[in-house]
Amino acid sequence: xxxxxxxxxxxxxxxxxxxxxxxxxxxxxxxxxxxxxxxxxxxxxxxxxxxxxxxxxxxxxxxxxxxxxxxxxxxxxxxxxxxxxxxxxxxxxxxxxxxxxxxxxxxxxxxxxxxxxxxxxxxxxxxxxxxxxxxxxxxxxxxxxxxxxxxxxxxxxxxxxxxxxxxxxxxxxxxxxxxxxxxxxxxxxxxxxxxxxxxxxxxxxxxxxxxxxxxxxxxxxxxxxxxxxxxxxxxxxxxxxxxxxxxxxxxxxxxxxxxxxxxxxxxxx
Length: 269
Prior knowledge:
The chain has 269 residues and is of the alpha+beta class. It has 11 helices and 6 strands. The two termini are 17 Å apart.
């Protein structure tokens, strides 16, 4: 499940891939397979790559930004290795890569595979595996951004207090100058259809939706989503938004608003 989710960014699709892999596995003579676990992993990874290619064609027609499905990482879930789930901001960055680059990067950085193992899983040469990883890191313009930096325990309280008071000065101190805000409504609910960049546009948007979007009256819970701090907003006990914070050097550099109800289902369980 974790391999499939990291490649696809969708828990529903990951479940379908894993089920498909097991059905295929049942249909073969597994007694002849020495390492059944690695055989299944290889099958899941390759099925996930094919599914990701199909997904990317659909994303081309998606309304507004497409964001990965959020996963709660402070609670255990069957079939998911919490520590191996990628950070949310990294999952978003990985959308820049082609599918093979993404698979190599995930196997190397999340699962600590060496290039010989990656070559075996993806049926490519060791040299090609190294080249794909190098190109992936070049495009991400980061080294290995998989380490999850701890956040001060009162950070979210400070943010909410500033929002409640409309304290733009406090918010400015908490945000990087080139802060980015992405919102995924999937065309099903109201959401920003274009990225917002910079402190002024982001603060104006945040304060606007806090009042007009009814967030001020919402029940708000803190969470950890893909190892990053988040706020979950509820109206009448129904989850309406998951707001993920990407924090670098003590300040927010990206906000991710998940509003698409289909992608919030997993969090509601």
